[in-house]
Amino acid sequence: MTPHPLSSPSRILLVEDNPADVRLAQEALAEEGVATDLAVVRDGVEALAYLRREDPYATSPRPDLILLDLNLPRKDGRAVLAEIKEDAELRRIPVIVLSSSRAARDVSRCYGLHANCYIAKPVQLQQFVDVVRKIQEFWLQTAELPDGPYLRPGGSYGGALAS
Q: pLDDT digits over 38-80, tens only?
């Protein structure tokens, strides 16, 4: 398969505080051989600063896709998800919740906050790699993602696209 034409490489923001899960995601993405630019932030406050291009992320590109853990320090993933989906400049970026929680209330709440997808993190190494591969395959190679200046560095979100 070839990378999605939206951008090459595709940009992914991984919001994850567990270094082992970060490493696994990096390895899984590299293993697939699809060009990705992975940015990693370790907590919810840092994630929002990155997405809003606040210091020290003023020149960071907007991601094509966000992988969001729920249990984060400083600001949890539920609060981050809510802020992303309430923000006219950020809400169209697909957010995939990738959490160790399998609790029905977490799944329901995340979809209520307009998560694009909820995936429980597998415990086994190979299963985790497979999940990341499938995310990349579907979201970056199969799905049509929104395109526009709001996803490009220095761009702004046009009012005509607001929903």
A: 899 999 999 999 999 999 999 999 999 999 999 999 999 999 9
The two tokens of residue 5 are: 């034409």
**Residue (of 48, 12, 47, 15) closest to 32 by Cα position:** 12
Residue 86 structure tokens: 């309430």
Task: Report pLDDT digits (tens) over 102-146.
Answer: 999 999 999 999 999 999 988 888 888 888 888 888 988 888 877
pLDDT number for residue 110: 97
Please report how many Cα atoms fall inside a 13 Å half-sphere around the Cα of residue 104, on the Cβ side: 0
Domains defined along the chain, listed by start:
13-146 (3.40.50.2300)
CB 69 within 8 A of CB 40: no
Judge whether 138 and 145 are in contact, CB under 8 Å. no
